[in-house]
Amino acid sequence: MLLKGKTAIVTGASRGIGKAIALGLAREGAQVVLAARSAVSREGGLEGSIQETAASVEALGGQALPVQCDVTQEESVQAMVQAALAAFGTVDILVNNAGVAFFYPITETPLKRWETVLRVNLTGAFLCARAVLPAMIARKKGSIINISSLAADERDAGTVPTGVAYGVAKAGLDRFTYGLAVEVGQFNIAVNGLKPKEPVDTEGMRFWTKPEERQGWVSADKMVKCALFLAAQDASGVTGTVSTDEELSLWHGL
Ligand SMILES: NC(=O)c1ccc[n+]([C@@H]2O[C@H](COP(=O)([O-])OP(=O)(O)OC[C@H]3O[C@@H](n4cnc5c(N)ncnc54)[C@H](OP(=O)(O)O)[C@@H]3O)[C@@H](O)[C@H]2O)c1
Q1: What confidence tens digit (pLDDT) does each residue in 109-149 have?
Q2: What are the residue numbers of the active site?
Q3: Contacting residues for 126 by C-beta, under 8 A, at least 6 apart
Q4: What pTM, to 2 d.p., does this model score?
């Protein structure tokens, strides 16, 4: 097992790519801290909850700690990381996966939506990274993975209509990845960004699309494989990169 005995926090682990990565980490022997707002499935909301993901991890024989957390709230993030440290003693891996999109033109984007998109996708990653870094720095080891999007670079309509706030947040996240990798390399901590090359079939993506727009969608399998590879890195290996799952697979023969 690649990650036996390691502790990983995955934000946005109640559904979609985050849930798939959490299960992948557990299959490789990591204890997983599942952080998201949905403790249980909400009526009328998107399917999935951290309790359900925890049950799936346990069904694999893995160890899970579901912690309700809103990544935009500093106190909520601090409490989630403290719960992880209390349960498992340290944090080796952080996957900043929590994300929200708002696929409307700028003229139809209220300030509140703009700010929410930036706070979840970008500020959330900053808050979570800052909260786990003291434990990683103390042990001189760690891996942080920021889940980004091709929307960071897209300048046309893309395969799905891409809200500008979302693209701006992900572009910021990529820059955050490069900057943080430089800062924490001296502590042997790897920081990498990972984005899907093809749209991944998730509850969130279904919410924003019509059935006829869902051609070419893939499962989260390739993202999971790449996330596991990055989770096993420290600064002596792969760090400071932002790549698609396809690129990373080609570069490293995954
Ligand atoms: N699917 C794709 O094709 C695709 C493409 C490019 C990039 N991505 C990126 O991949 C990541 C996962 O996407 P997905 O498609 O799996 O999305 P999804 O199905 O909508 O899941 C999003 C996750 O983020 C969590 N989340 C949202 N706001 C949060 C908050 N304030 N605090 C904590 N957790 C929060 C949600 O949990 P709660 O609602 O329970 O809080 C949920 O677990 C995102 O960063 C997304 O931008 C996805």
Answers
A1: 999 999 999 999 999 999 999 999 999 999 999 999 999 99
A2: 166
A3: 176
A4: 0.98
CATH code of residue 239 = 3.40.50.720
Residues of the chain above pLDDT 90, percent: 88
Nearest to 3 by CA among 32, 39, 40: 32
**Structure confidence at residue 161 (pLDDT):** 59
Distance 142 CA to ligand 1 centre (A): 23
**Beta strand ranges found along the chain (DSSP E):** 7-11, 31-36, 64-68, 93-96, 142-147, 189-195, 242-244
- Domain contains 1: no
In this predicted structure, the answer to whether residue 159 has a pLDDT above a threshold of 80 is: no
Does pLDDT of 219 surpass 80? yes
The pick from 33, 37, 117, 203 for probing ligand 1's pocket by mutation, whose C-beta has the most ligand atoms within 8 angstroms, reads 37
Distance 233 CA to ligand 1 centre (A): 23
Number of domains in the chain: 1
Domain membership of residue 154 as a residue range: 7-252
Q: Is residue 179 part of a domain?
A: yes
